[in-house]
Amino acid sequence: MTAHFDALGIVVSDMEAALAFYGLLGLDFDEDPEVAGHVEADLPGGTRLMLDTEEVIASFDPDFEPPTGPGRIGLAFLCDQPSDVDLSTMR
Prior knowledge:
It is a single chain. The chain is α+β, with helices and mostly antiparallel strands. Helices cover 23% and strands 29% of the residues. A 4-stranded mixed β-sheet has the order 2-3-1-4. The longest helix has 10 residues, at 15-24. The chain is globular and about 40 Å long. The two termini are 13 Å apart.
């Protein structure tokens, strides 16, 4: 298995405000946040910045509770196949 750093994800409570802020930095996002709740922008070097609404995160993590402090950022590693992240086979 060869995993490489692929994306930085940020959970946002206000997608419109987040897009306005990152837009000021010159980032161009690929989707309509009103439709998907998930957008991505390509960064120099091939890494992506992903913004997801709290609702999108809760849709695949039913135990998700928005943090009241730090903790809205996640790192994403690209692997060749789903079994590459099966921790039971990595021991």
